[in-house]
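Annotated sample (chain length 362).
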Amino acid sequence: MFKRILVPLDGSALAEQAIYHAEQFARIFGSKIILLQVLDPASFRENPISVDPLNWQIRKKKAEIYLEEVTKRMNADLLEDPMPAVDFENPETKSPKSRVEYAISEGKTAESIVNFAHQENIDLLIISTHGAGGLSRWNISSITQKVIDMIYLPILLIRSYYQPKLVVNRVHYRRILLPVDSSRRAECALSVGLALARGEIPEGFASELNSRKPIQTAKTIPSLPTQLVLIAVIKPPEIPIPEPYPPEIEQLTKKLMTVSRRVVSEYLEETKARLQVDCETYVLESSSVSSAIQNFANQEENIDLVVLCAHGYTGQIEWPYGSIARNYIEYGTKPVLIIQDVPRSEFQPTAAEIAFKKVGGR
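Output written by the structure step:
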């Protein structure tokens, strides 16, 4: 599922908010983590300025020292776990393999991150909403926004202003919110949410790990429960006539909502029975699905992660994210994992991409 995780860093504490989440995902999915720092020679203005070679080399060396320190610390944390990393290229390897590596790239920051992810076969991007530029009135920095718009991969967006629940320096997701719309497409997020709730490696990885000998753990990590919260939002029918509605329409609307509420409740209970984990279900009624999800996530206690499929029952794939996922990316307040259900090859390039290819970015 998530064999290779990419975490962009820029030396700031805000960007490092992604590290704890990356380590937790690596523990559960047996992943390798690649840290990436991009050195952009351009100034904050449109036109690049000349870069002094000596200062540039000093800057590169500082970045290398920083990444080495972070990599060493993360490897030490992960080597204390009973599950070693999997060398997916050489699964017969028996010795523990480094769980974390780093790379330095030069160029435009957002483009370099996207290109690196595609060239290195990254399966999951974990990125903070803000970095070295600091917090601002905008929910997402411009660089992060550009990256998630063009990455066409599963993403875990970490709110830099949201402090995660830590237990022995680990992220603990107390409650994971999973909005569903009864579609098979939206259910693609269920397997990930289930794995995170169980804290287990999914079945697809089990055979690759059976032959590996566990490392003795140096710490006793408490086993803390995680609860899944399934919600479905039903909307009243949209009727293109002014209110008040005729009595016949009012009666039909009430009947439709009653039937919808019953059918959706049954679907959620069936799904809950299949998951076989601690799970709560809620049926919400609202004229806006996005607002209902936002309000529920904000008002419910201990929601530490929201998991969404990139597209829902409409199946509209002209854009990398459907309206619900896009809304939560832009305006949500909790970390959100978006499972991209459409391969990158199926997305049509935007007009800007086509123009960029023609002129070469000039």
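Annotation: The mean pLDDT is 85.
Annotation: The two ends are 38 Å apart (CA to CA).
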